[in-house]
Specification:
The complex is a heterodimer of chains A (169) and B (79). With 169 residues, chain A is of the alpha+beta class. Chain A is 35% helix and 33% strand. Chain A has four helices and nine strands. Chain A is globular, with a radius of gyration of 16 Å. Chain B starts with a helix and ends in a 10-residue tail after the last strand. Chain B has a three-stranded antiparallel β-sheet, with no helix packed on it. Classes of the chains: A alpha+beta (169), B alpha+beta (79).
């Protein structure tokens, strides 16, 4: 079965399955000429780091507001389509308990050309961090803390512009 | 209620009766009265109604599900 393009899951991320889903979505509805429009696939995996702000991280526990997170991913997909019309995109985010070294987020962009594939991939991770209702609870040696970054506001044009600047830097 | 907000309140779901015309912000202010620890989140909060981002001045309808969202995990990357 082809997985959804936008997904929150408690199981291990499968980058290959996501690539298949995105390249299938990039093909013509008939399935004919599957790869004709695709010249580049860029992928990103976010991984649990064993160190944060000088602390030794033991594990992370991710929590999401699932229906809104999936909608936020779809919104990012629409933003990408607006800037890079030829791009196809998929985002899978894992939640629950993750150990150091495990992947928490997978992004795949599929494009006729590499420049747009890389840019859209970078844009997507920046936007996920800005607007996806996903939180991480860090357990480190000596304690635990909820990591809190940005106030999530999908209509904040300044944040959107910053994500675009980073994507095209 | 999510993440730290859930820790402060002690549960992830609360049911409330509210008069007609109640906005998301009025509901939030009402919760602060019961859970003063929430107050520090007033400036950095996001909210959603029925799983769509919504502004705090949105007027609620019967049966609406309101979510209060603390700042999300990103936004502080070292590039």
């Amino acid at each position: 079965m082809v997985p959804s393009l936008f997904l929150i899951t408690t199981v291990e991320l499968n980058l290959i399955a996501l690539m298949d889903a995105v390249s299938t979505a990039a093909s013509k509805p008939s399935g004919e000429g599957k790869s004709l429009q695709t010249g580049a696939i860029a992928t990103f995996l976010g991984v649990v780091r064993g160190e944060n702000l000088g602390r030794r991280v033991l594990r992370l526990e991710y929590e999401a507001y699932e229906p809104l997170a999936v909608r936020a991913f779809a919104r990012i997909g629409a933003e990408v389509a607006e800037r890079w019309p030829a791009i196809r995109l998929g985002i899978h985010h894992r939640i629950g308990r993750l150990e150091v070294g495990q992947a928490s987020v997978a992004i795949v962009t599929c494009s006729p050309h590499r420049v747009d594939a890389f840019a859209a991939c970078r844009y997507s991770i920046e936007r996920i961090k800005q607007i996806a209702p996903i939180w991480k609870h860090e357990f480190f040696e000596g304690g635990d803390v909820w990591i809190e970054g940005a106030t999530a506001d999908p209509h904040d044009e300044e944040a959107k512009a910053e994500a675009f600047r980073r994507a095209c830097a | 209620m999510f993440a730290r907000l859930c820790d402060i309140v002690g549960t992830n779901e609360i049911e409330r009766e509210a008069p007609i015309g109640t906005t998301v912000r009025m509901l939030w202010d009402n919760l602060i009265t019961d859970f003063p620890g929430l107050e520090v989140y007033g400036e950095s909060l996001s909210s959603a109604v029925n799983a769509e981002y919504a502004r705090m001045d949105v007027v609620l309808n019967d049966g609406d599900e309101v979510a209060f969202l603390p700042p999300v995990s990103g936004g502080q990357s070292a590039m």
